[in-house]
Inverse folding.
């Protein structure tokens, strides 16, 4: 994996969701560095510093919702090619459809099922590395 493929950013303000993600990365994805942000603004700062290969984003964030964050990231040429996945407790089929239509590459429902999530993440990073 290339050096820039070793970072995944998770933008999430819920402490328990962040703890779960840390656990998943520590136990199952230890070769990948998890970057953490509680707000979209902090996430933007980390993106500028590390250029992650994947962004995982909650929909309900304190400073702006995930849809506005998604639009900002896709509008910026420096971040427009980074895949962005929604991870949300808003889990109705309409929510998923809205997220995918808005441009999220994937829309994952909380609570995450660890093994399928790990498989999807590894596959996505491998494909992203091949495309670069």
């Amino acid at each position: 994996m290339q050096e820039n493929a070793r970072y995944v950013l998770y933008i999430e303000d819920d402490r328990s969701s962040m703890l779960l993600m840390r656990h998943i990365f520590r136990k199952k994805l230890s070769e990948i560095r998890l970057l953490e942000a509680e707000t979209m603004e902090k996430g933007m700062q980390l993106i500028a510093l590390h250029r992650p290969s994947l962004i995982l984003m909650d929909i309900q964030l304190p400073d702006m919702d995930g849809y506005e964050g998604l639009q900002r990231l896709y509008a910026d040429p420096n971040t427009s090619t980074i895949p962005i996945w929604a991870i949300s407790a808003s889990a109705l089929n309409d929510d998923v459809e809205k997220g995918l239509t808005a441009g999220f590459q994937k829309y994952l429902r909380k609570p995450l099922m660890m093994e399928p999530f790990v498989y999807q993440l590894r596959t996505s990073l491998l494909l992203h590395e091949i495309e670069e």
Remarks:
- Residues 1-5 have pLDDT under 50 and may be disordered.
- The chain has one domain: 3-131.
